[in-house]
Design brief:
The structure is a homodimer of 183-residue chains. By secondary structure, chain A is α+β, with helices and mostly antiparallel strands. The first copy, chain A, contains four helices and six strands, in the order ααααββββββ. Chain A folds into two domains: 3-75, no CATH class; 79-182, Roll (Nucleotide Exchange Factor Grpe, Chain A, domain 2), CATH 2.30.22.10. Chains A, B: It is found in: Cytoplasm.
Chain lengths: 183, 183
């Protein structure tokens, strides 16, 4: 309440009933203003509280999403390097496919096999797995058919031969197997 | 204002100045209560607003930290696999150190060199680097001294020989070089 309005109230009490009536009237207008400010502030408070609830929820959602992203990042962290290592594994297989005839070559091949095994251990530890192919039913999610053949001794739709190994990282296909399928 | 109090105000206006005085007095007590609630709600509003500012700041800090963590995770994502590949690189070097005499062995070594190069390309792409050793000043942050020798033709404290390659992933040492140092 302003100073001026307080003066009016005091005057009214001292002077007359009529004046007092006026004073009460002023006072009740003043009260409406007070109530209005209170309502307004209460509204603001409520809005602020609603906002707080929403932003707490946003924060929690964000944290959950971050955690999920982090887990996925962690799970597949080796993917870029593994993708570049797949040709290394292919080359190893090709190098080891030779038939060594001399003792020197045989010993070399043995050495290379050991190196290959160390690399296989390392990539397996990170979650790399060879996709099953030969003898299983062709599945376009895992296999890429590059040839077909008719072998009556085997069921149709069976993978007859694996032409290039396929790999997955945990539940994610990095490269499908290239296969020959029975018609 | 309650109904009962309003009645008192009306009565006072109609009845007498004395009664009116009393009414105004009641009214002003009522006003003090109103103002108190307003002050209280305003205080609550202010607290709520402060809290909102603080939690916005917390959220921003959290986001920044998450971003920083994410960048570090991304930067060093290949570290676990690379650590397991270091022995593979060592074995490659050992396998390639042989002196092939037969044509068969020579061709095999060439094949293995190609495989090694493919692997080196893959790990280099992910940020793996060989630590400089031979001919540079010994630095305990990068080198592990396993032998000492006295070579007067070279400066003291110089790395004379690298016994095992050391590697770093970007700015992080994965394994120091094992070296022979000049006394």
């Amino acid at each position: 309440m302003s100073e001026k309005q307080e003066e009016i109230v005091e005057d009214s009490v001292v002077d007359s009933t009529e004046e007092t009536e006026q004073a009460v009237s002023v006072d009740s207008v003043e009260e409406v203003v007070e109530v209005d400010e209170l309502t307004l502030v209460k509204q603001q408070l409520e809005e602020e509280q609603d906002k707080a609830i929403r932003s707490r929820a946003d924060f929690e959602n964000y944290k959950r999403r971050v955690q999920k992203d982090k887990e996925a990042d962690y799970k597949y962290r080796a993917q870029p390097l593994l993708l570049d290592i797949l040709p290394v594994l292919d080359n190893f297989e090709r190098a080891l496919a030779v038939n060594a005839t001399t003792e020197e070559a045989t010993s070399l091949v043995k050495g290379v096999e050991m190196v290959y095994r160390t690399l296989l251990d390392a990539v397996t530890k990170e979650g790399l797995e060879v996709i099953e192919a030969e003898g299983v039913a062709f599945d376009p999610n895992f296999h890429q058919a590059v040839m077909q053949e008719k072998d009556d001794s085997k069921e149709p739709g069976i993978v007859l031969q694996e032409l290039q190994k396929g790999y997955k990282l945990k539940d994610r296909i990095l490269r499908p197997s290239m296969v020959k399928v029975n018609e």
